[in-house]
């Protein structure tokens, strides 16, 4: 595909996803009842998302924890996915992590080690509330890659997680189409990022955080991994670096399932129903169905 056409498709996908996210996020927030709010979570919605009285069924025994990405929040990221999973009978929970006081609503920017601690505490809260032993994690970008991987590798999360499903995860760091590489070469930029946007700095290829994370194998025993990627990703680049190696890993490229899928990084996590269908298959592999272009219809 010519670079100009690819760029136009990427920008169109991003604009569409962002518009839908802002609209639906505002709608979700205004529609949520005023009760049942837990620290670090969105208000409980009528669909059962962040419903702390939810008890998992035999069909779906693991509660699902959703982790948004960088410069994002739980409402705008999961406005389609969370209600859909809750409607299928899952107990679904999400949180806002990595908050910086000078960038309200654009979360996931705190130091990843600190954010991993927030995720650890949240998973413990979910397990206690639901009376279960393990959760399944579904995350977008940072929330599907380096953040939960650090929790699994270095904070004892492997014993509490059954499945990790990453949508466009920057598992081995990101170059952001070359911007991250450029930042490494310009004196003072990395230091400035670490002081103001540490979560962003942590995810750039070559950061101390990524070097520590990737000093160990991609996977830990006992956890099942799914990576869902798009060839048009412009953030978690190069896109093949998202893929993991190891046992119990399935790497999925949406264009291999539907060649007409032109979602980029943002759209893949927010509105891509082909990706969502693969999430559903990964959560319940015993009842998985083929993912095709028709999956985009619902």
Fold and architecture overview:
The protein is of the alpha/beta class and 298 residues long. The protein contains 12 helices and 6 strands. It has helices at 3-31, 74-78, 81-87, 112-130, 146-154, 179-185, 189-196, 198-203, 208-213, 254-257, 265-270, 273-283; strands spanning 64-67, 92-95, 135-140, 161-167, 224-229, 249-253. Strands 2-1-3-4-5-6 form a 6-stranded parallel β-sheet, sandwiched between helices. The relative contact order is 0.13.
Question: Keywords, please?
Answer:
single chain; 298 residues; alpha/beta; six-stranded parallel beta sheet; 12 helices; globular
Number of strands: 6
Task: Tell me the radius of gyration.
Answer: 18 Å
How many DSSP H or I helices?
Answer: 12
Rough outline: globular
**Oligomeric form of this entry?**
single chain
Roughly what fraction of the amino acids lie in strands? 5-15%
Distance between the termini: 28 Å
The residue-averaged pLDDT reads 85
Strand adjacency order, main sheet: 2-1-3-4-5-6
Report the major sheet: 6 strands, parallel
List the helices and strands and how they pair.
Layout: H1 3-31, E1 64-67, H2 74-78, H3 81-87, E2 92-95, H4 112-130, E3 135-140, H5 146-154, E4 161-167, H6 179-185, H7 189-196, H8 198-203, H9 208-213, E5 224-229, E6 249-253, H10 254-257, H11 265-270, H12 273-283
Parallel strand pairs: 1-2, 1-3, 3-4, 4-5, 5-6
Helix pairs in contact: 4-5
Give a brief description.
It is built from twelve helices and six strands. It is of the alpha/beta class and 298 residues long. The longest helix has 29 residues, at 3-31.
């Amino acid at each position: 595909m010519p670079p100009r056409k690819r760029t136009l498709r990427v920008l169109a996908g991003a604009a569409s996803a962002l518009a839908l996210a802002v609209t639906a996020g505002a709608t979700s927030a205004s529609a949520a009842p005023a009760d049942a709010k837990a620290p670090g979570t969105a208000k409980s919605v009528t669909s059962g998302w962040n419903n702390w009285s939810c008890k998992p069924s035999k069909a779906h025994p693991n509660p699902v924890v959703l982790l948004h990405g960088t410069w994002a929040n739980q409402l705008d990221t999961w406005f389609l996915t969370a209600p859909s999973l809750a409607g299928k009978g899952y107990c679904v929970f999400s949180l806002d992590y990595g908050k910086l006081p000078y960038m309200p609503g654009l979360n996931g920017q705190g130091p990843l080690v600190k954010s991993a601690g927030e995720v650890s505490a949240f998973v413990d809260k979910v397990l206690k509330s639901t009376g279960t032993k393990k959760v399944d994690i579904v995350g977008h970008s940072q929330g599907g890659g380096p953040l939960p991987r650090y929790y699994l590798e270095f904070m004892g999360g492997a014993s509490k997680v059954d499945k990790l499903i990453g949508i466009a995860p920057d598992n081995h760091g990101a170059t952001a189409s070359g911007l991250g590489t450029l930042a490494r070469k310009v004196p003072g930029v990395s230091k400035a990022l670490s002081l103001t946007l540490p979560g962003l700095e942590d995810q750039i290829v070559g950061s101390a955080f990524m070097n520590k994370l990737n000093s160990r194998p991609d996977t830990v025993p006992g956890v099942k991994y799914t990576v869902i990627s798009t060839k048009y990703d412009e953030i978690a680049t190069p896109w093949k670096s998202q893929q993991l190696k190891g046992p119990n890993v399935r790497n999925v490229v949406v264009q291999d399932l539907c060649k007409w899928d032109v979602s980029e990084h943002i759209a893949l996590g927010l509105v891509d129903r082909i990706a969502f269908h693969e999430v559903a298959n990964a959560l319940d592999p015993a009842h998985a169905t083929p993912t095709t272009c028709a999956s985009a219809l619902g």
